[in-house]
Each structure stands twice: as C-alpha cells, then as structure tokens.
Amino acid sequence: MIWIQLTRLVVAAHYKNEAELGEALAEAFLTGLLWNSDHGHVAEACKDSLTKLQLDYLDLYLVHFPVATSHTGIGTTASALDENKELDIDTTISLETTWHDMEDLVSMGLVRSIGISNYDIFLTRDCLAYSKVKPAVNQFESHPYFQRDSLVKFCRKHGICATAHTPLGGSVANTELFGSDSYLDEPILKGLAKKYKKSVVQIVLWWNIQRNTVVIPKTSKIERLKREFPSF
Questions:
Q1: The domain spanning residue 83 has which CATH number?
Q2: I need a surface site. Which of 62, 71, 125, 152 has the fewest CB within 10 A?
Q3: What positions constitute the catalytic site (predicted)?
C-alpha cells in the first residue's frame, strides 16, 4: 500500500463512490500494542489508545514485549530505572496474568483478536498452555540473518500467524553472527537478485512471504515504497 495524506473524503450518491469507499475502510486493519509499563493496566491502556484513535475497537492488540516494567503512567513509553540505572522490571506481574487481562479485552468488545510480540518459542509455548483465547499472531524479528525457522514452524503448527517485523535486518544478533547488520551486500542474495532481475530487498521480502509469514517492512521514503513493494 502506498500512503498519500488525505484530510477530507467526500462521498455522495451522485458520485457513486460510497460503496467503494466503504469497502476500502472495511479493509483497513488496525493493530495496537501494549507497552511494557502497562502490563498491570491492560484495559486502561487499550481504552487510551482507542480514545486517541477515535475508535470503538481494534482489530488486533498485541503484548509488545514479554516483560513487565514499573508503571510510568498510561500513554507514556518512558522506562523507569532502578537504583542501578537498569530497567526496573516489575516481578509482581506475570505474563500469564497479563494474557488473561488481554483475553478480557475480547469479551469487553474492545478488540477483535489478541496476540503476542517478540515472544520466543518457549514463551509462545507457555502462552498456549495457559491461554483461554489463543494468540492469533506472534510478531517477531525475522530475516536472512535471523531466520527463526523453529519459531516460524511452531507458530504455523499451532495456528498462530507468524509476522516478521524488521524483515530488512537490524538486530544486534546480526553483528555477532555475521559481522554486519545489513545483508544488502550478501553475495548469495545479490546473485539471486541478479538472476531474477529484482532488488535484494524484494528477494528478501519474497523469501519471508514464501515461508508463510506476514511481513511488515517500514520506510519513511515514498520512493522506496513504490520501488520495492511490487516484489514478484
């Protein structure tokens, strides 16, 4: 999808555009994420997001990271630090408790589906064990330098949609394993790009799609979006 800023949409029976616009709006899928410091305030955090978005519900709401930190106020992502200047983790809130609060959002009608983000295979397994409402999605980093094959297969086996964030790289693990955080100059990928007359970015995005993962690349440059989006 190519984003163009619009501030006003005009519909009219005479224009014969109401049905088409209705279909477009119905296809919009909005995902929200619960921040670390709000694990003990799940409903309040979700309602705050809905108020800011001027919506009645979200299509999907995810636990952003599998860690609870000290509460710093609804709507803020400031991280509280302890006396050692380290992240102040709240050990009184378990991931199971957070998940059951997420499940309540579904019964309250505030969200249609719930999911997890940045959960490894063991945390995903645990979530399945204690969940009444199974996570619909697990969103995690995945790209050629950090492939997560076991996690992708585990999610597929248990009916969880594997979603690849940062599909173009960027993890610290890249540098540790490959000496680089970018694979744009990777000889194998450059060879495939030349063979199929595509860019390395398109090759990588398509590789992830063929693994049955949803990819969510991000860019602030409209030219890059136009160039890389039509992959194959």
A1: 3.20.20.100
A2: 125
A3: 15 (proton donor)
User: Which one from 15, 145, 183, 196 is the annotated catalytic residue?
Assistant: 15
Does residue 17 belong to any structural domain of this protein?
no
Residue 98 falls inside a structural domain: yes
Closest CA to 141 of 177, 109, 174, 110: 174
Burial class from Cβ neighbours inside 10 Å (0-12, 13-18, 19+) for residue 171 reads: middle
Active site residue 61: no
**Does residue 6 register a pLDDT over 50?**
no
Residue 79, in any domain of the structure: yes
Gap between the Cα atoms of 205 and 221, Å rounded:
17
Domain contains 169: no
Per this entry, what is the length of the chain?
A: 232
Mean of the per-residue pLDDT values for the chain? Answer: 86
* Mean predicted confidence (pLDDT) in 24-37: 88
- Tens of pLDDT, residue by residue over 165-217, are 988 876 555 566 555 556 777 889 999 999 999 998 899 999 999 999 999 88
Its pTM stands at 0.84
Task: Tell me how far apart the alpha carbons of residues 120 and 189 are, in angstroms, rounded to a whole number.
Answer: 26
Nearest alpha-carbon partner for 119 in 168, 165, 174 = 165
Domain that holds residue 102: 29-135
How many domains is the chain built from?
1
Q: Is 143 annotated as a binding residue?
A: no
Q: At 181, list the tokens.
A: 């955080």
Whether 30 and 58 have beta carbons less than 8 Å apart is answered as: yes
Q: Which ranges of the chain would DSSP assign to H, the alpha helix?
A: 18-27, 42-53, 95-107, 121-130, 149-157, 172-178, 187-196, 200-210, 222-228
